[in-house]
Amino acid sequence: MEKLVVFGLGLIGGSLALDLKLRMNFKVVGIDKNPEHIKKALELGIIDEAGDLDQLADASVVIIAVPVNIIPKVTLQVLDLIGEDTLVFDVGSVKNEICKIVRNHQNRKNFVASHPLAGTEYSGPEAAILDLFDNKVNIVCEADKTDWRILDKALSLFKKLNMRIKMMDPVAHDRHIAYVSHLSHVSSFMLGKTVLEIEKNEQAIFDMASTGFASTVRLAKSSANTWAPIFMENKENLIKSLDEYIKNLIEFKSFVETNNEEKLKEAMNNANYIKSILNGIK
Amino acid sequence: MEKLVVFGLGLIGGSLALDLKLRMNFKVVGIDKNPEHIKKALELGIIDEAGDLDQLADASVVIIAVPVNIIPKVTLQVLDLIGEDTLVFDVGSVKNEICKIVRNHQNRKNFVASHPLAGTEYSGPEAAILDLFDNKVNIVCEADKTDWRILDKALSLFKKLNMRIKMMDPVAHDRHIAYVSHLSHVSSFMLGKTVLEIEKNEQAIFDMASTGFASTVRLAKSSANTWAPIFMENKENLIKSLDEYIKNLIEFKSFVETNNEEKLKEAMNNANYIKSILNGIK
Predict the structure, then answer these.
(1) Residue A219 has what pLDDT?
(2) Does residue A146 sit in the same domain as residue A253?
(3) Alpha helices (H) along A113-260
(4) Which residue in chain A is spatially nearest to B246 when comparing CA positions?
(5) What are the pLDDT digits (tens) for A83-118?
(6) Which of A204, A217, A238 sits opposite B256 (nearest CB)?
(7) What is the pTM of this model?
(8) Is the Cβ–Cβ distance between A227 and B211 less than 8 Å?
(9) 3-class SS at B171?
(10) Chain A contacts of B222, Cβ < 8 Å?
């Protein structure tokens, strides 16, 4: 039975463990600095046993699913200790930093920098679910720096999860993901915070949530421990997108203040174009 | 067969027509200044026939589902022409203005100011769907100004649609709805606009939409013709909430800029509290 070692038993690490155990019949060893996570993951059958770094030499696959600011340190440690055929991949939401840090490691060829575009607003081992990755895109960066047999092993595994693979430059990845995903998270976190601050009537929030609030604020339920490091690691791109977002909000507010219905509608009609993109049709 | 007259055959008016025809066996007469809407509503079986103002005297129920800035004018016209037992209700997202305007009309007692908290991001007669209102809250304002038999008729109708009724002062309604719903819409519209402006790669938007963007931007697909009048009519409350939202975004940005991880997490943890409210559990 091949051994899969998973570092970080949260939503992504836990869901990968669950699914790969089922679909590829791995023996799954879990590593997490939080003993509660280990306990929970064992209880829920997400992992077969708790492990440590001496389990790496004969591991077939190692997944790094720790918070993004810890990924570099853990990845370097792991790459020092693995066997010749071990596949190591991370699942971090920011890719340039990790790609830079492993670039000159002697075992760089065993590493695949990946970002599965999947998740929910929940966190921890309890949030782990089956089928989270089916039909989702997995972005792979600097694939040319991975040994072709190791990369092929990663592709087989990703295909067992029914993921779609997209190769991307890490700098481009971080820019795109800031604009599309990270900005959405900040927008939603701050919507939640603002509504809680100005709307003192919790019953009204609950009663009125069906008017679009519930879906727009969904991401505000996400874990601060996961997202603070992501925002800081992708700081420049995030700030650029936040500047644009704030500028647009201020402009929109001025249209409302001055009763400029024409400009107000124009701004909304521009936003409407997102419909055709999300439907995949121009 | 009792006659239902619906003014405005968009998402809400159309869905009410569809559902009430089925559940209460009305003959449905539609009125819409857009001839395309009339044509479409006839085609889709949303209405039985197109009508005009001379159809009001013997109508059992009249629904005002036109854009919120048109509601006062249409409502006053309708109240001038109805029969003694006709129930008239509007479905506007802003309530104080309409409540003020009908207050001294001789047929005020025939009117129910309501706001069904239901909808989708789509618009027009094609967006009309069955079961849109089941288990949704319908807010009723100044119910004491409606004749009790007319109000009871409205409650029977709302209950046929399986709506939950909540009585609310119109000033409080407009404040709550700005904070919870209208702010969400602006936040989402501007997210869509910003991402379209800074992210020139449409394929990247499409590929990365599963990372939370798709749900956060959903409301940006909404109709500008519906929402511009709502924002302007609820201007003061909306601006107050926008000011707070922008302030929070600027503050969050400064935490990222200064690597203030503690404050960043605190802001997100505060937002996380929305989870317990939306789950209905403190």
Answers:
(1) 96
(2) no
(3) 148-160, 170-177, 183-198, 202-208, 213-216, 224-233, 235-257
(4) A246
(5) 999 999 999 999 999 999 999 999 999 999 999 999
(6) A238
(7) 0.92
(8) no
(9) helix
(10) 268, 272
